[in-house]
């Protein structure tokens, strides 16, 4: 190799960056659906990369019409609401431990099923069994979601594992977490 030898750059390569900059590289705002890939706000990044599954679960259980459609369940008509939603509403009203029999009675009274008597006819007994099956299905769905835990001391009670709605200030359990994330994002 010769000393003081510089590589020779063809003249068209010198103009290449100007060419690429002018025709091939454009602003990201001009790209179709650029909102899917580019973020300007840090809060949007936090929403995408740190989702709040408990908040989505609470929304789905308290207002199922947002997911199921307005025609499938009417919030004013209890009979059109899913059983899991009815049980979750009673879940929020209870304390730390829930008595299963009381929870079932509250569920059946919500569905307007009379309490059992000795003189019940076959249709009432069948209706009561249907309500009991619906209760068990909703109960197991809440258990599957991780909202309930069995106890060893009292077999007819379950423990609440998640307290979503604050009772003191009316502030949701997750609003405090959201405020903490907002403060971290602003810092």
Helix proportion: 40-55%
The number of helical segments is: 8
The oligomeric state of the chains shown is single chain
Q: What's the β-strand tally?
A: 3
**Rg estimate, integer Å:** 30 Å
Question: From N to C, what is the helix and strand string?
Answer: HHHHHEHHEEH
Q: Low-confidence stretches at least 5 residues in length (pLDDT < 50)?
A: 166-187
Note the overall shape: elongated
Number of domains: 1
Give the biggest sheet: 3 strands, antiparallel
SSE order and pairing:
Blueprint: H1 11-24, H2 42-49, H3 53-62, H4 65-68, H5 83-93, E1 97-99, H6 100-110, H7 122-144, E2 148-150, E3 157-160, H8 173-186
Antiparallel strand pairs: 1-3, 2-3
Helix pairs in contact: 5-6, 5-7
Structure description:
The protein is mainly α and 187 residues long. It has one domain. Helices cover 51% and strands 5% of the residues. It contains 8 helices and 3 strands. Helix 5 crosses helix 6 and helix 5 crosses helix 7. The protein is elongated.
Question: Which keywords apply here?
Answer:
187 residues, mainly alpha, three-stranded antiparallel beta sheet, 8 helices, 3 strands, disordered C terminus
Short description:
This protein is mainly alpha-helical and 187 residues long. It has helices spanning 11-24, 42-49, 53-62, 65-68, 83-93, 100-110, 122-144, 173-186; strands at 97-99, 148-150, 157-160.
